[in-house]
Design goal:
alpha+beta, 146 residues, Nucleoside Triphosphate Pyrophosphohydrolase, 9 strands, 23% helix
Length: 146
């Protein structure tokens, strides 16, 4: 029987003097990633995304919608990743990780230069237009077959 792992993350942006920039966290290995992490016992997947954003950036967020759910399978493990588009609220204090803001063109340049992103598949999320309202989240997850 395969083990299932659920994780959630956020794609968040902010306008700086009229320029749209996306939030990334610089990990200990120097790579950039969306704030994300694994679901804890008894936690809903949307609460996982909110908690991870707060833990990794110290930004409070409000989830707006979710993007297509990603499922990958390796050996004895199935990984299910839910990425949410989120609106940044206030920053409570300085986060435990360095926060990096990139424009869409900077994201693409860095991606094609290689080696900057921890999970390159996440880059699909920032330009994905197939968003789903939050009210559909539980239904979408219940339809997944493991």
């Amino acid at each position: 029987m395969k083990r299932t792992s659920l994780s959630a993350g956020i794609v968040a942006f902010k306008y700086f003097e009229g320029v749209k920039k996306y939030l990334f966290v610089k990990r200990g290995d120097g790579l950039l990633a969306w704030p994300s992490g694994h679901q804890e016992s008894g936690e809903t997947i949307d609460k996982t995304a909110i908690r991870e954003a707060l833990e990794e950036t110290d930004f409070a967020v409000e989830l707006i919608c979710f993007l297509p759910i990603k499922i990958s399978e390796r050996e004895n493990k199935i990984s299910v990743r839910v990425v949410f588009l989120a609106e940044l609220k206030e920053r409570i204090s300085e986060g435990e990780h360095e926060v990096v803001w990139l424009t869409p063109s900077e994201i693409l340049s860095a991606f094609y230069a290689g080696g900057m992103f921890r999970w390159p598949w996440q880059l699909e999320a920032y330009e994905d237009t197939n968003v789903q309202p939050l009210k559909n989240l539980q239904h979408a997850i219940s339809q997944l077959e493991f």
